[in-house]
Amino acid sequence: MSQQIRFTRRRFLQTAAVTSAWALSASSYSRVFGANGRLNVAFIGTSGIAGSQSIGPIKKLGAECPCYCDADEARFGPAAKAYPQAKGFTDYRKMYDAHMKDIDAVMVATPDHHHYPATIIAMMNGKHCYTQKPLTHTMWEARQLGIAVEKYKLATQMGNQMHANEGNRRIVEWIRSGKLGTIKEAHIWTNRPVWPQGNPTPTPAPDKKPAGLNWDAWLGPAPEREYVEDYAPFKWRGALAYGTGAIGDMGCHTTDGFYWGMEPGFPVACELVEGEPVAGKEQYGKSAALKFEFAAKGDRPAFNYYWYEGGKKPKKPDWVDKGLEKDGGLKPSGGIIIGENGAIQYLDDYGNNIVVYSFTGQEIPEPEQTLERSEGHHQEWYSACLGEKPYDHPKSNFKYAAMLTESVLLGTIAEKVGGRVEYDSVNQKITNNDAANEHITKKYREGWEFKMS
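Structure (tokenized):
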């Protein structure tokens, strides 16, 4: 039997005089309010998702902006329109040199390979940070930002906006209530990629580079190469050097409610069960299926979850016989969380539309509300930046977001090397495949290597 439930989406500052390029730690600064008591925010990335999920929401909350950065001047538009007096840059290192003392917080909405350097420079200088998902490009970077938020005690938030919605909170409450019984497994899938992926190395096209694009700054920490029209400004997500593929793009969204509810820590293994390894290639593959394994924790037994991308979806194991496809079917994106007594199926990436199934023949009662409801994803961060809430008040703060991101990115390593990779999270090491360890971190181009002081 099933029951349909639908949810709709819901809704101290640290300033420093910088004496050298980002060499001082956050602990050397004192907390003061920004100009006129408002938050002074710098935007790194000013178009695309930055317009809808950085500039627009934060301006509505009252933030000022002294400066912003995008490697492509043609994409300055949303920031220039919202803040005509602010100064634009194409290299955030230069922006930081010129304006670090003028900003209280940074919002990062760049390609994935820039997330860590743009963020850690700001945090080392005492600036609150909001960084888009996935939090970082590599597992090592994720671990570093998880350490940084505890070291510097700054307000942080990852841009998985639906962490604040009603649906994800109800998923958590269903899982933790025990009404579904012990959770046995989950199947989670996405319609991504919706960009070119699994193609041969594209041909450089230096003669087609837009006049306003600072290609060297766009490459940032990635290896030097001639301009590639196929990647800038949007089609970079499928390229190993700049993006994290489909699971990197959507894993921090579509697995979020499940991961939050289970509190599993790090996976102990991940296996590429469908798809071809992509190590040595330019791009991630067109499709893949992954199996993540988590160890027992306390009274909760070990469990697995399966991730599908590129049009792949769960096969038809015994739970289909229980009727889990009949209400709404398997939509292009969604998930099924299976317990002993019942299951929940969500019919989108964000947990907004939920179907509850009983395996006992009796309707499962709704769980009680146990989680605080959000005042708004951006408001959580803004209030913490202003000191109105604790630094860790944002629910997708870097302590949580770094763990989620590191877990998701183990999947990208399995996609690269193939087979099953076993993970020692304490030492951040793959234990059964030495070659896989090179993908936990990466080589940074000279001038783009930043580590915590």
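Confidence is low (pLDDT under 50) at residues 4-33. Residues 11-161+377-396 form a domain with the Rossmann fold fold (CATH 3.40.50.720).
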